[in-house]
Design brief:
- By secondary structure, the protein is an alpha/beta fold.
- It has one domain: Rossmann fold (3-Layer(aba) Sandwich), CATH 3.40.50.1360.
- It is built from 7 helices and 10 strands.
- Strands 1-10-9-6-2-3-5 form a 7-stranded parallel beta sheet, with helices on both faces. Strands 4-8-7 form a 3-stranded antiparallel beta sheet.
- Strand 9, helix 7 and strand 10 form a beta-alpha-beta unit.
- Helix 1 packs across helix 2.
- The longest helix is centred in the N-terminal third of the chain and has 22 residues.
- The mean pLDDT is 96.
- Its EC number is 3.5.99.6.
């Protein structure tokens, strides 16, 4: 077990640029000896600075990169701005010439959609994951009540806990708690940790307690992000606000 590298920056902008530079360097290196790279993206306002900076990075052959995302709500109509696939299209997927973008379908039978996405993910190894941490310590939509560090599934249907749903309101994604869908599809904790390299971008004072718990509390499902400490190659990118409880 290797604890994550923790990098702290003065503000969100410098944090985002540093994360993007490291992600870009990893992609360039892998593309120098691999035919293709497969990566998974988180969708959240916390990721915006890093993704904007990543789009501006030069020297990456995006035509050899296949993109996935790690979770999405069930029950939202096609094209709804709150859908994570839609958000990622606007922020990164439609701004770069990816080889393929596999959007998570949420129509029809959720279990069938989970199985379909599981099959897509399993076609080749996942090289890179760009993720965040929720205020309740979730990674993807693995909230404490549903997180399972030994989950046999790669993608599953989950019930979102109230803290997670309230975060979506506080982030400005939904007007009220009642508007936030109660269920979602998510990559599981083992599926996320099966990637070669993790870049975890976590700005903001609202995340300070979750960051402290991630790095200081016992590893376990009560704070799902503690699982990051079991990964061999994970870096956390923080700003002064999110790092404020580490002193």
């Amino acid at each position: 077990m290797t604890d994550p590298i923790v990098r702290v920056f003065a503000d969100r902008a410098s944090m985002g640029h540093a994360a993007a530079a490291d992600i870009a360097a990893e992609l360039r290196e892998r593309l120098s000896y691999q035919l293709a790279v497969r990566m998974v993206f988180a969708a959240a306002p916390s990721q915006r600075e890093a993704l904007d900076a990543l789009v501006a990075e030069a020297g990456i052959d995006w035509n050899r990169v296949t993109a996935f995302h790690m979770d999405d709500y069930l029950g939202l109509p096609e094209g709804a701005p709150q859908r994570f696939g839609q958000w990622l299209r606007e922020v990164v997927f439609d701004r770069l010439p990816f080889k393929d973008v596999h959007l998570m379908r949420t129509d029809g039978d959720p279990e069938l959609r989970a199985a379909e996405y599981t099959a897509l993910l399993a076609e080749e190894p996942i090289d890179v994951v760009v993720l965040g941490i929720g205020v309740n310590g979730h990674i993807a939509f693995n909230d404490p009540p549903v997180a399972d560090f030994a989950d046999p599934k790669a993608v599953k249907v989950v019930e979102l806990d109230e803290t997670c749903r309230q975060q979506q309101v506080d982030d400005g994604c939904f007007p009220t708690l009642a508007d936030v869908p109660p269920t979602a599809l998510t990559l599981t904790v083992p599926r996320l940790l099966d990637a070669g390299r993790l870049f975890c971008v976590v700005p903001g004072r609202a995340k300070a307690t979750a960051v402290r718990r991630t790095l200081r509390e016992r590893i376990g499902e009560a704070c799902p992000a503690t699982a990051l400490r079991t990964h061999q190659a994970c870096t956390l990118y923080l700003d002064q606000d999110s790092a404020s409880e580490l002193a």
